[in-house]
Design the sequence.
């Protein structure tokens, strides 16, 4: 399936979960559902999700390392060091990306996504995200536990 088909299946599964839970379909819910529907294909280098995840890792590594690097090496040199760390993070993800339909296409990954979503938002959104993620696995025909 392509990204649009996964997105539509995920929105359907996530919306059904929200209705069953008595929750409204809000913008945060839509974001969680869309992410859950598309995140499993972050392991394929031709997908936009792969590009987005590798960019997010680089940006995250840059901003997480920047205060420490600037404190240690000064403002300019610390910024350059953080930029290198961000680029290294992106390059490392691209080099070490899991095989397609591997760990990201498992129930374990769906549960991990739900756990992270639950930690960051609500259990209801986490269940909707899990439903969207699981819809991707079912649509691909690759439902593995681990
Ligand atoms: Zn897939």
Sequence:
């Amino acid at each position: 399936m392509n990204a649009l088909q996964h997105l539509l299946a995920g929105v359907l599964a996530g919306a059904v979960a929200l209705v069953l839970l008595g929750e409204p379909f809000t913008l945060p819910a839509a974001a969680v559902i869309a992410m859950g529907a598309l995140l499993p294909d972050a392991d394929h280098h031709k997908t936009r999700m792969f590009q987005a995840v590798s960019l997010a890792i680089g940006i995250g590594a840059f901003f997480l390392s920047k205060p420490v690097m600037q404190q240690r090496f000064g403002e300019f040199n610390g910024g350059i060091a953080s930029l290198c760390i961000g680029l290294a993070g992106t390059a490392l993800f691209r080099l070490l990306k899991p095989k397609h339909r591997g760990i990201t296409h498992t129930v374990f990954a769906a549960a991990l996504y739900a756990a992270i979503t639950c930690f960051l938002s609500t259990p209801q959104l986490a269940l909707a995200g899990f439903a969207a993620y699981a819809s991707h696995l079912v649509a691909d025909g690759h439902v593995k536990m681990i």
The radius of gyration is 17 Å. The pocket of zinc ion is lined by residues 40-41, 101, 105, 136, 140 (CB under 6 Å). The mean pLDDT is 94.
